[in-house]
Backbone:
């Protein structure tokens, strides 16, 4: 079923390259998309003596495994691959494919969950295993390339499975960015200021309401652009919109209402420290830093999760969502561009379970036609 739905979704793809790990499960999946080039470089981590064992069986036979920090550095199972060697192999495989693509070309690689997580970690400069769920079977993770820069455009997009993907039990917070605004079109920083949705933004909200849900609760930033985006979704779910002030956008201080060019001209030294040198300082002197915004949002998210259940629609903003996701994954401020600002009305999902909050998906939006 998963492979059939993936095949339907990618039926009109125009990828230049179709590559697959040479293991049977990936080759079978890839064959539903087209004729794929097999490569052992895209294999999953070699588990050695652990191959075929369940997590419970591994813990029973190797009681010290938790202390050995699975998935880092010199760690390796008996007879298996050293994790640092695995990470190098995956990075080399990714770069080999990237080098084969000309500008505007696309590649599809059918591979494994641990490989995808490792590629993402290499791009954002963090080890993501503790803060990010393994991607669903047949889900799409899209990496965009521009010169030497790579970004994780979306993670774990499994919307073609129509909710049939496995997820751990827990409260799901679906972080939804507001619809397009006038300030978005002008590239103005309005953290706490108000700006109206455009006609396109209102259409995005209506499209989201048509495909969204079911939601047990709807919570919104106090900004009118977030509340207005939430209203049609809440109406469809039959719930009220609750407002939480800690879901507001990053505060830009003295730079509120300015474009990036205007902020640089107004205070070139402070602007350069943040955006050229990568120092995480408060925006516009009196605003917030990236880390401060992430912590604020994190407190709000934890409170919502502790009081809620099922799926909660959280209507908020692009900058603060990226700051929060960055805090969960341990992304250094200077590497934040590895995840782009979420698209208007796209969502990122955080699951709160016994392990705490973990990123389930990022920047996913079926209603935008992607």
Residues:
């Amino acid at each position: 079923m998963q492979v059939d739905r993936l095949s339907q979704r990618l039926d009109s793809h125009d990828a230049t390259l179709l590559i697959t790990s040479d293991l049977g499960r990936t080759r079978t999946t890839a064959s539903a998309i087209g004729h794929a080039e097999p490569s052992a470089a895209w294999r999953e981590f070699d588990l050695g003596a652990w191959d075929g064992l369940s997590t419970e069986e591994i813990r029973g036979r190797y009681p010290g495994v938790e202390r050995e920090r699975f998935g880092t550095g010199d760690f390796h199972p008996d007879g298996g691959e050293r994790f640092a060697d695995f990470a190098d192999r995956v990075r080399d495989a990714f770069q080999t494919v990237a080098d084969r693509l000309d500008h505007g070309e696309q590649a599809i690689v059918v591979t494994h969950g641990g490989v995808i997580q490792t590629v993402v970690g290499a791009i954002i400069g963090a080890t993501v295993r503790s803060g990010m769920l393994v991607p669903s079977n047949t889900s799409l993770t899209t990496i965009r390339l521009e010169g030497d820069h790579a970004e994780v455009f979306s993670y774990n997009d499994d919307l073609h499975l129509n909710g049939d993907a496995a997820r751990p039990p827990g409260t799901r917070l679906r972080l939804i960015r507001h619809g397009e605004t006038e300030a978005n079109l002008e590239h103005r920083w309005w953290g706490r200021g108000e700006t109206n949705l455009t006609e396109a933004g209102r259409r995005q909200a209506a499209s989201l309401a048509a495909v969204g849900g079911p939601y047990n609760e709807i919570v919104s930033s106090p900004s009118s652009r977030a509340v207005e985006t939430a209203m049609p979704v809440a109406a469809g779910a039959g719930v009220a919109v609750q407002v939480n002030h800690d879901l507001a956008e990053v505060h830009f201080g003295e730079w509120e209402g300015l474009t990036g060019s205007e902020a640089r001209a107004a205070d070139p030294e402070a602007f350069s420290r943040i955006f050229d040198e990568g120092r995480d300082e408060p925006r516009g002197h009196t605003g917030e830093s990236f880390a401060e915004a992430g912590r604020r949002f994190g407190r709000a998210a934890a409170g919502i999760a502790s009081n809620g259940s099922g799926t909660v629609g959280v209507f908020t903003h692009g900058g603060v969502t990226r700051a929060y996701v960055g805090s969960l994954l341990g992304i250094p401020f200077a590497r934040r561009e590895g995840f782009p600002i979420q698209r208007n009305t796209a969502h990122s999902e955080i699951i709160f379970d016994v392990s705490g909050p973990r990123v389930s998906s990022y920047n996913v939006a079926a209603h935008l036609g992607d």
Remarks:
- The chain has two domains: 2-45+81-159, 168-368.
- The first helix runs from residue 2 to 9.
- The mean pLDDT is 92.
